[in-house]
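Team,

Forwarding the record for the chain on the shared tracking sheet. I've put the sequence and predicted structure together so nobody has to dig through attachments.
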Amino acid sequence: MNITERIFNFIKKAGEVASEITITYQEERKILRSSYYGSINRLEKQGLIEKRKKQKRLYYAVTEQGRKYRFPKKIEHERRTDGLSTVIIFDIPETMSRQRTVFRRFLQHNDYALLQKSVMISPKKFSKDIVELMEELKVRPYITVLSSKVYYF
């Protein structure tokens, strides 16, 4: 679970107990300087939480859209036992840049390491979930999947 998801879940759970999470302006300045700010900012931009002001305090509340939102679950891939690695090479056209970004982030989120911008590697087996995503994004013709032995020199 990444930091953004942890913060969102905290705000959501706290909202079940208390109607709001309040912070002072000084506390907000500390948050702005921390790594949490990026996560809170992303959640706000996605419309999952909103900042509200009451007197001299700020608070974050989960929006209606946030109540319905479910973070994507990490897919459990089976580890390869044949000593090979799965290599995915993709050359998705610039006109499909959104699909390319979604595909790359999905692979990174599921333990694929970036060798180059369009080459990913993992010691896990290639899953049907990746095939389903390729079909959904309509990028299958631009992707090659290899099984390869990795040598370190």
